Amino acid sequence: MKFYLSGLLLFSLTAAFGQLNPMGSIYFQNQFLANPAMAGTENGLTLNGAFKTQWVGVEGAPKIQYLTGDYGLQNNKVGIGALLYSETAGAINRMRATFSYAYHLPLNNESSFLDFGLSAGIMNEYVNIGKVKGDLTDEVLNSFNERQLYLDGDFGIAYRTNRLTLQGTLPNLKRFFKRDILRNVVDRSIYFIAAGYKFNTDKIVNSIEPKLVYRGVQNYEGILDAGVNFQFLDNKLMFNGIYHSTNSFTGGFGANYKNQFSLLFQYTTNTSQMKNYSNGEFEIGLKYSFKNQ
Known about the structure:
The chain contains 3 helices and 15 strands. By secondary structure, the protein is mainly β. It has one domain (2-290): Beta Barrel (Porin). The chain has a 14-stranded antiparallel beta barrel with strand order 1-2-3-4-5-6-7-8-10-11-12-13-14-15. A hairpin with a 3-residue loop joins strand 13 and strand 14. The radius of gyration is 20 Å and the shape is globular. Residues 1-18 have low confidence and may be disordered.
């Protein structure tokens, strides 16, 4: 049993490096994914979905997919949202479903907003027995799968103007208040702080938005992300780049049709620990907005 337990812990440590670069959508395309306070910042319904594969070329490499929907009421004060999230890493699976409520407090005649958001839902983590290579009677393995679903949630806050956005999030609140060793299979974010400012222009480049993000990661040093997003040709084309302090880089490009449908492709180079083992990470994201008239 000790040998199998050691193998499981080694896998947990190794898998953690795959999570140090989150979904690239959180930086510019779908900020609600990282912060429930950003639900419904735009009137109407917005749908987002993305798929990401990590460590290309490595057997059992992590794969992530999600679907979100958020809706902003016409009074500009209330937003609601929902998230479905699925992640696999080798034999370990994680599924999460949450519902979010956000209140947008208008300031200065609605020229700025102070946003508060809370999400609540369920998390399920389990080991796919069919993919396990080891002793299937191991007590640790059986104990892990015998656990029930548990409640989880996130809390977020933000301050927004037409150009400036400041935000902070405490994700995985159950883990934040009470650590569970048996659930420590893949390191997770324990807090998220971001600041962005959009410069609008009247030229071919419609806007330039630099952004700084600092992420606290459990069992790992904090990570700084520095990125910039460019919008071109009446916001029809988008290019962005993000440098991560894990010595990796995310580059992406996308297209926007009639300010409703957006398609985003991103590639992330490997962290310094994984550069000799795989070919990086690929992500594709889709967004569709149903604007209130």
